[in-house]
Design goal:
The complex is a heterodimer. By secondary structure, chain A is α/β, with parallel strands linked by helices. Helix content of chain A is 22%, strand content 28%. In chain A, the strands form two sheets. In chain A, strands 8, 9, 10, 11, 12, 13, 14, 15 and 16 form a nine-stranded mixed beta sheet that branches. In chain A, strands 1-2-3-4-5-6-7 form a seven-stranded mixed beta sheet, with helices on one face. The two termini of chain A are 25 Å apart. Chain B has five domains: 7-247, P-loop containing nucleotide triphosphate hydrolases (Rossmann fold, 3-Layer(aba) Sandwich); 250-411, P-loop containing nucleotide triphosphate hydrolases (Rossmann fold, 3-Layer(aba) Sandwich); 425-510; 519-582, Ribosomal Protein L25, Chain P (Beta Barrel), CATH 2.40.240; 666-877, no CATH class. Classes of the chains: A alpha/beta, B alpha/beta.
């Protein structure tokens, strides 16, 4: 699905492609998630890393980019350095470099991304602490407000958007989605769904106070005006705006 | 009766002299001083157990069941004591599923021991009894370690723990007897499966076998129960003698219809009559025990009896699982002392807890199984020689037919059957971890031991190996096994052993099979807490249902994790009765009995005289008198006159309206629309019990969803099910005939498995199984993990396990549990095939208003939705619907 001339949502994937940057963009991988869960007594089989590799490989196969931009939270744990997390992150980055031959890896630091510095030098990762302005696109994670005003389009992660739909027969369906809209100042913004395999997502059409999670919705943007572009099977479908999907019963 | 070499029924008791001769002289003297003669079960058991036979005893309460098991054991211990050979070790382990029962047994053994040893003047070692449950204090455990009791009274969970407490296990080396009580509460569920493995592990641990004694009230088939009790020695079944004294106590019971016309009487009139009947029975007797089917029902009866008839607070009490332990013990004590006039209970008093003398039992509403009816009514009667008296008061017309047939079946001694869950992988996973803590096991040796349990004798080796793989952490990389693996597996030696200190702790903290249940918070959209409901209840609610909570009606909107979102619905009529969640399922056998009765009754009525709407109106006004044939059939049943007339009228109405009465060999399919005119209803009068209907209805719904390319909602009850579709997806005559023909085709098990994946039931059951197999923990690092967290965790585990291997043992087990334990897939498959082949006939009719027999079917029930299978198409359809609602167009 095309978003303007330069940007495209790759059909059926939680991945964006930006032609002028020759880059694919994804967010919220939360690698190492299973190890952390196991430490809390839930022994999840490992699936996240494998799925992330699969998805990125698919995206690379579709558009052959030179670059990958991760818009925050490549790994999971906030507080401490987890050996497994470190290993998985390293394995992922190695995969991007040697298998997918991606020349440039850009990471925006999310709220979960301490210690990533240790990977920076050995893997030649371009690391941005808060946000990165690249070719008119502002990449920021979303737990804080974006500061740059020079961008024409903003791209964020962090909220793991999805929509929940309820049917009259008692069905419930949750679909991960991109959110597309305009800031109060008229600039375009895209919110990316999480790539993490376990993240069902956060039902944006059910939640009233999303500003709690990401201040951009409190101060710079009305979420109800945003269009939900849902990830289907091999395709991406528009479901109308978040506001329209509130309280909707099929 | 049947009789084979290994499991055999003993039909002729030994004489009193033969039986008493088995006993140690002091014990015999004590016995004869207090009892006139051995009771019927004792006339079998004294000699059998003395001879070292495995024995299964079934007998009603008050038949001296406890002593029938223990006398020979006490006698053996007395002989040892007199010979000065009674050592400080455990000789006998008694296991019951109830702590309360354990306390009773402890008392009931110590009282005679006190008397016995005060009668004996010579100085000999006293036989000791010890009790070990979750309630046992640390100090007592320490004391028991120093001075092990000769008879250890315990629960299945505590026994499992003892097998892994190295120091205490030493004391178990000399066990000669294992007694399992309330077998009917164990043999049919995972708790019992867990116990059966513990017992085989015990035999393996101490290196020799022991006498196995099982006791139960009403259960059938007895040979299945016997097999569960004794298991196998290698390839051979162990011997067992069955002593069936179930019917030694005479039962006298009647089904009562509170009013002549249950349908047209007001709820108040019915209630008034029900309570007057109860009051009259209570006034006539010294102590009456009333059974309701639910806890809330129990509270309602107590409340009404006090309000209506001024019962003193000290003369009436409720007893159910939600009450505190102290409160329950208090009630039991008052009953034993004969101080209560009436006690009201849900299920908690149906088990063998000692409650003294009950004169009469009243059951309100169908207890859903013949065995349970017999068990409950059997609680009354002073002694074994007395007649047990009971009345069953019905609450609806289906209930009436059901109870009448049930009591008739009880009269003919036709009991419904149980089955033991087979090859449950979650329970086995838990035991393999326990076994590894005992030492090193070669795969062959461990597999052989497991197969000695009846519940695992047919376990495929590859399933066993899949568990070893899972437990050794083969599903994660080497570096993660430190955290994931629960056992150490040595591929070269083909052997497993313990892994890490933490695992032992995890094992002790998470042992057992009873899942943590949770109260679901009920909140309004503004997140205000209104109260709580049971998880089970939530899983049966569908959006739009109205239910009562704390006396106020609420409309159910949606649920997320452990929260139910509702809107207050003042003045609206509840669509879900509050007791439904706890309702037990109608059994297959009883459903068939009802089917046969329906067939006979319809034939007896013949073609009703006034086959017109006017006829029905006449019926409504005055009711009809049964014709001679029908009268004859009804008079043979244990029911009152009101009930007879009500049944006759119910059947006549159905005949007049629909032209036929559905039965087990004739499935009536009714096509109609709901009363709002908004949805199509396809009503199946399917009389095979709820567990069959549960599976069958989903098979039908999946097929219909394919045929119509639409979502299908299902409503399931004991007497049938309803498939519901949106108005535009109307099932035509062609679709219905394709449906009936096609439902029995293909691999039904696989088809249903795929559908179950998305249900609430799968999510919940997987949580239970993941916890039992330690994939998610309920207690970890000294902390209790909330059920909410457990649910989140298990959903993630399911998602990932499915991704790496759809045949992951715990996933496989969850499907097995749902299809075979919760539902009855094998029988559902048979019914589906019989329908397609015409062996079971079907008739399709179109009604503008649903026929009388379907009224309860469409009102109450548990529901589910079968969604379109093609995911891509499904999401597109969702988009189409959304945009249509929004007035836009699909892009």
């Amino acid at each position: 699905m095309r978003i303007g001339r330069d940007v495209e949502i790759l059909d059926g994937l939680p991945v964006l492609y930006i032609k002028s940057l020759s880059a694919i963009v994804c967010t919220d991988l939360h690698l190492g998630y299973e190890g952390v869960a196991a430490g809390r007594g839930a022994f999840l089989p490992k699936a996240n890393l494998r799925k992330a590799k699969e998805t990125v490989a698919k995206a690379v196969g579709m558009r052959h980019p030179d670059r990958i931009i991760v818009d925050g939270d490549i790994k999971n744990e906030f507080s401490q350095v987890h050996a497994e997390e470190f290993n998985e992150t390293r394995e992922f980055v190695t995969f991007l470099r040697s298998e997918l031959k991606l020349g440039s890896i850009t990471l925006i630091k999310g709220n979960h991304d301490n210690f990533i510095d240790r990977l920076r030098v050995p893997f030649g990762i371009e690391l941005h602490a808060q946000e990165a302005l690249l070719n008119g696109y502002l990449f920021f994670h979303g737990e804080a407000l974006p500061s740059s005003s020079e961008a024409r389009m903003l791209i964020m992660g962090h909220v793991h958007p999805s929509i929940a739909l309820y049917g009259r027969l008692g069905t419930r369906e949750k679909l991960r989605c991109f959110l597309r809209g305009r800031m109060h100042d008229g600039r375009e913004i895209l919110v990316l769904p999480a790539m993490n395999y376990f993240a069902e997502g956060f039902s944006v059409n059910m939640e009233r106070d999303i500003g709690r999670l990401a201040p951009v919705f409190r101060e710079m943007l009305d979420i109800d005006s945003m269009e939900a572009l849902c990830i289907g099977e091999g395709e991406t479908l528009s479901f109308g705006t978040v506001g329209q999907l509130r309280g909707l019963e099929l | 009766m049947r009789c084979d070499d290994v499991i055999r029924y003993l039909e002729k008791p030994f004489t009193a002299e033969e039986s008493l001769d088995c006993l140690n002289l002091f014990l015999r003297k004590w016995f004869e001083k207090r009892y006139k003669a051995p009771t019927p079960p004792q006339l079998y058991s004294f000699k059998l157990i003395t001879e070292g036979k495995n024995v299964l005893i079934t007998a009603p309460t008050g038949s001296g069941k406890t002593f029938s098991a223990f006398m020979s054991i006490l006698s053996d211990l007395m002989n040892l004591s007199l010979a000065n050979r009674l050592e400080d070790k455990v000789y006998c382990i008694y296991v019951s599923p109830l702590r309360a029962l354990n306390n009773d047994i402890y008392r009931n053994l110590n009282v005679p021991l006190d008397q016995l040893f005060s009668d004996i003047t010579i100085q000999i070692k006293r036989i000791t009894v010890g009790i070990r449950t979750g309630d046992t204090t640390q100090a007592e455990r320490q004391r028991m370690l120093k001075h092990p009791p000769h008879i250890l009274v315990t629960t299945p969970e505590s026994l499992a723990i003892l097998l892994n407490s190295e120091r205490f296990a030493e004391h178990l080396k000399g066990v000669k007897y294992v007694v399992i009580d309330e077998l009917h509460e164990l043999a049919n569920n995972k708790r019992g499966v867990h116990l059966s493995l513990s017992i085989e592990r015990l035999a393996g641990l101490i290196g020799h076998d022991f006498v196995r004694v099982g006791m139960g009230a009403t259960l059938s088939p007895l040979d299945e129960a016997a097999r569960y009790l004794v298991g196998y020695e290698g390839e051979n079944e162990r011997d067992c003698v069955i002593v069936d004294a179930t019917w030694e106590k005479r039962l006298d019971f009647t089904a009562l219809s509170p009013v002549r016309d249950i349908v047209n009487s007001s709820e108040k009139a019915i209630d008034d009559s029900i309570y007057s009947i109860i009051d009259a029975i209570v006034k006539k007797n010294r102590t009456t025990l009333v059974f309701t089917n639910t806890r809330s029902g129990t509270e309602r009866v107590v409340y009404n009896l006090i309000k209506r008839f001024k019962y003193g607070e000290e003369s009436i009490a409720a007893h159910h699982g939600s009450l505190s332990r102290e409160a329950r013990l208090g009630v039991e004590d008052l009953l034993k002392k004969g101080k209560l006039k009436v006690a009201v209970s849900s299920t908690s008093l149906e088990l063998g807890i000692d409650i003294g003398t009950i004169d009469n039992v009243v059951q309100i509403g169908s207890p859903k199984s013949v065995a349970r009816a017999v068990q409950r009514i059997g609680r009354s009667g002073h002694s074994f020689n007395d007649v047990a008296r009971g009345e069953v008061i019905v609450t609806s017309r289906d209930d009436l037919v059901e109870c009448s047939v049930m009591l008739d079946a009880a009269k003919r001694r036709h009991l419904d059957t149980f089955t033991t869950p087979k090859n449950a992988l979650d329970v086995l996973a838990q035991h393999i971890v326990g076994m590894s803590q005992n030492g090193k096991w070669t795969l062959d040796k461990a597999y052989a031991l497991v197969r000695n349990s009846y519940a695992y004798h047919t376990l495929p080796r590859k399933d066993f190996l899949s568990l070893i793989e899972y437990l050794s952490g083969a599903y994660v990389g080497l570096e993660s096994r430190r955290v994931y693996a629960k056992i150490r597996y040595d591929e070269k030696e083909q052997a497993f052993s313990r892994r890490g200190k933490l695992t032992k702790l995890i094992y002790f903290m998470n042992i057992g099979t009873i899942p943590d249940e949770v109260a679901i918070d009920v909140v309004t959209p503004d997140n205000k807490w209104q109260g709580s409901i049971q998880e089970e209840f939530l899983s049966r609610l569908k959006p739009g249902d109205v239910f009562v909570l704390g006396g106020k009606p609420y409309r159910f909107d949606s649920s997320r994790l452990m929260k139910a979102f509702v809107t207050p619905a003042p003045g609206q009529v509840p669509t879900i009765p509050p007791w439904y969640s706890e309702q037990l399922p109608l059994t297959y056998e009883l459903a068939l009995e009802i089917g046969r009765f329906r067939e006979r009754m319809a034939a007896a009525i013949g073609t009703p005289a006034k086959k017109s709407r006017n006829g029905i109106a006449a019926l409504r006004r005055s009711g009809l008198k049964p014709n001679a044939e029908a009268r004859k059939l009804l008079d043979a049943m244990p029911i009152d006159e009101n009930a007879k007339v009500a049944i006759f009228n119910y059947f006549t109405e159905q005949l007049l309206y629909a032209g036929c009465v559905p039965n087990d060999r004739l499935m009536l399919i009714e096509r109609t629309i709901d009363k709002e005119g908004e949805r199509n209803l396809l009503i199946f009068h399917s009389l095979y019990g709820r567990r069959v209907n549960d599976a069958l209805s989903r098979l039908f719904a999946i097929r219909l969803s394919e045929l119509l390319n639409a979502d299908v909602a299902v409503n399931i009850t004991d007497n049938g099910f309803v498939l519901i579709t949106e108005l535009q997806a109307r099932p035509g005559a062609k679709a219905i005939s394709a449906l009936v023909d096609g439902v029995g085709k293909g691999e039904m098990r696989r088809i249903l498995t795929r559908d179950i994946r998305k249900t609430e039931m799968m999510r919940r059951r997987f949580r239970y199984n993941a916890a039992r197999s330690f994939m998610i923990l309920r207690n970890y690092m000294g902390r209790k993990i909330s059920v909410r967290k457990q649910q989140v965790n298990s959903q993630l585990v399911l998602k990932a396990a499915e991704e790496i291997n759809p045949d992951f043992p715990i996933i496989k087990e969850t499907y097995r549990e749902i299809l075979d334990d919760v539902m009855d897939m094998p029988r559902a498959e048979r019914v589906a095939m019989a329908l397609a082949s015409g062996e079971i006939a079907h008739k399709v009719i179109e009604t503008s208003v649903p026929s009388p027999f379907s009224h309860l079917l469409i009102t109450f029930g548990e529901s589910d939705v079968i969604m379109m299978k093609d995911r891509r198409r499904h999401i597109r359809e969702l988009q189409r619907q959304v945009l249509a609602k929004l007035g836009g167009r699909a892009r």
